[in-house]
Specification:
By secondary structure, this protein is of the alpha+beta class. Helix content is 51%, strand content 22%.
Length: 284
């Protein structure tokens, strides 16, 4: 099996692994002990069934919070044999893990268990072969006061041949580590939409782009400098003088209170109210 076929088979097996893991996780609580209770399921207390449903939801809390991937941190790739897929940026995944668990080294981290150089496909007729760097990694994390661990493999072609000839990739160990980290995180639900094939659906990706664009806009507005107390009071005065619906006005600027209004929107908001005040006075 040459390097390209090896990687293609590995990707297919990993996707199948994620799909099976997702199905098993979502059904775990609901099916636990089902065989032993099947004869008496009809008499199962309602409280016990509700507890099982809550447990099933809780089991997937982390998964659902990290499964969506921001398309701007992805890129398509292709390999020999016609295999195509979507790669996700490793630093983006590390940031998501930090959001979920805390800083790396404190809330989560990686431990290299072992690594090796494997022989791949023949490179020429003189007995030279591809060299593939393989690493086995344990990803640990802390969640709700408990420590969890996931073990996975990562690999990268270290010595090979492409359209430009023979090459040596000195960054192969780093790439293998990132590959292993991504696979570990995927089994916890990180970017599961990619591994479950949802990025093959253009409509899903388009909707996701819109969703994350709105999130980025909201985050930028949240971090932007806000109006001063005096500016907020001035707007409140104009709202009262013009009989403007304050709730609608704040919704228009996507804020809950005028103190949250970005300073860059102040002049626009003031001019709108001043114009309404002038129109009201002219009509009188």
């Amino acid at each position: 099996m040459d390097g390209a076929d090896f990687r293609q088979q590995e990707e297919c097996e990993h996707r199948r692994y994620v799909e099976e893991y997702s199905m098993a996780t979502s059904k775990n609580a609901a099916t636990s002990g089902r065989d032993s209770r099947s004869s008496g399921k009809a008499q199962q207390p309602e409280q016990e069934r509700q507890a099982e449903q809550r447990a099933a939801v809780e089991n997937l809390t982390l998964w659902h919070s990290v499964e969506k991937t921001d398309p701007q941190y992805t890129k398509p790739f292709s390999r020999g044999g016609g295999f195509r897929g979507t790669a996700v940026n490793g630093t983006y995944l590390a940031r998501k893990a930090t959001e979920a668990f805390g800083p790396m080294g404190i809330g989560w981290g990686l431990e290299i268990l072992d690594e090796a150089i494997m022989e791949g496909a023949p490179l020429d007729g003189q007995g030279n072969h591809e060299k593939i760097h393989k690493v086995r990694v344990k990803l640990w994390y802390k969640l709700n006061g408990e420590r969890g661990e996931v073990v996975q493999f990562g690999q990268t072609t270290f010595v090979g041949r492409n359209k430009n000839g023979f090459f040596t990739d000195e960054e192969a160990p780093k790439k293998s580590l990132t590959d292993a980290m991504s696979k570990c995180l995927s089994l916890l639900g990180f970017s599961a939409d990619i591994h479950l094939g949802r990025f093959d659906d253009n409509k899903y990706v388009n909707d996701l782009q819109q969703e994350f664009a709105e999130k980025h806009e909201a985050e930028q507005r949240r971090q932007a400098p806000k109006v001063s107390d005096a500016q907020a009071e001035e707007l409140e005065r104009l709202i009262a003088e013009t009989d403007t619906d304050g709730d609608k006005f704040r919704r228009f600027f996507k804020v809950k209170t005028l103190n949250e209004l970005p300073v860059e929107d102040y002049e626009r908001a003031r001019r709108m109210l001043e114009k309404k005040k002038q129109d009201k006075e002219s009509a009188a």
